[in-house]
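Hi U.,

Before I forget, here's the chain from the pilot set. I'm dumping it here mostly so it's searchable later in email.
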Amino acid sequence: MDIHQEFTEWAQRRGLEIIDIKAQRFCERGMGIMARKDIQAKTVILRVPYSALRTQDTVSPKVLEAIKGSQRMSIHGLLAMDHIFLNSQIITTNTTTATAGILAKSSEGVGSSSNNGYDNDNYKPWHDVLPKFSEFQESMSICWPSSLQELLPPISKILLQKQQKKIQKDWCIASKAWPHLIYENYLYAWLLINTRTFYFIPPSKYRSGSNQSNSVPGGHYSILHRDDCMALNPFSDYFNHNPSPSATVQITNRAFEISTTRDIKANEELTISYGNHSNDFLLAEYGFFLDENPWDEVLLDDYIFPLLNSSQKERLECVGFLGNYILDRNSVCYRTQVVLRILCLSSLRWEIFVKGLDDGEKDQPQIDQILCNILIKFRKDIQKILEGISSLGGDFSTQKALLGKRWIQIDNLLKATLDQ
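Structure:
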C-alpha cells in the first residue's frame, strides 16, 4: 500500500474526518492536498480532533521525568524530545536504558529512505510520510556549512541566529537528560517540530492578557508564550503555503478544522496560508520560498547603519526608530523614511516630521536620491554575492541554487524600486 494512503487510513482510525481530499505529489511543490471532486466554498474538508494532536499536554511522563530539575525547556524542544522518545527503535519502562540503547545508534535512521529509523507501530505511518533529514540538510540553512550561511540574505541570517540560540538552549537540556542522544537526531526532530507544527491553544486554556509561560507540577506548562503555542497536526501538515489560500484554518471547541474559502475544482490543489511572511522568513523557517510573494521585503539596515553617526543613532533610539528598515514590493517603510531624513534635514525639520506635523513631501526628492544611492550600492554587492555563490565548490548544488535564486529576487525588487 502507498505510504500516503496507509497514513490516511491511520489518521482516520484516530478520528480525523478527511472529506473529499487526498494527499498528492505536485510538480516542483512536493506533497500537498488535492480535491477529489468539485467542492463548494465554505465546506469543511478536514477535521482533526484534539485527541489526535501532539501538544505539550501529550508529552510522555518519562520525557518530563528525564528533564525534571532542569531549567525550563521550550515547548518546541520538549516536543522534539517526545518525538524521539515515542518513536525510537526500543521502548522500555526505563527511560535511561531506552535512551542509552536506542539513541546512541539511532543515527542510522537519520535520513533513512524507508521509515526514518522509527519502528513504533503507533506512529510509524505518520513518520513514514515526514521529510527525511537529508531533505532538511538541503533546504534548511541551520544544517548548512557556515560558508553558505554567511551568504544568506539579512533577514534569513537574523532568523538563523535566533534558531541557533534556541536549539542550543534546548540541546543543552536534552543532552544532559539523555547523555547518549546524538545531536543530528535531535536536530532532525527539532526541525520536524519547527516546520510541521501549527499555532494552537486549546480553547480551554485561553487566559486573557497572559503572556507568561509558568510551569506547573509534573513539568507541564500553563499559558504560554506565543512561541510555545504549537501542535503537531496529522494530515493538516500536507497543506502547502499560499499567500492567496483556497482554504482557511479554524480552531473550534472540539477540533482543528480546515474549510474552503472559495469553490474548488476536482484535482485542484488546496492551500492554506502560514502567515504574511517574506521570502527570507520562509527560507529560514521552512526551507522554501515563493516565486511571487506579495509580502516579500528586504532589510536595508546593513546599508543605512554605516551612514549614521553615534548621535543620530541615539536620537533614533530615543524615538523608537533605530533599525529594522524595510523595503517591500511597493515602497520603503515609514521607519526608513524617518532614518533617511535624519541624514539630510536639520534637527528641527526632522523632529517635525517624526511628530507627524509635516508630511515630508517637500523633502521627498532629496530622500529618494539618498535611497537610490543605497539601492545602487546594494545591487552592486548582490552581484559580488552571486559570484561568490557560483565560485563555491563542494556538493551543495541545491543550497547554491536556493541562495542564487533568492538573491536574484532581491535584486529584482531593488531594481523595480529604482525604476519607479
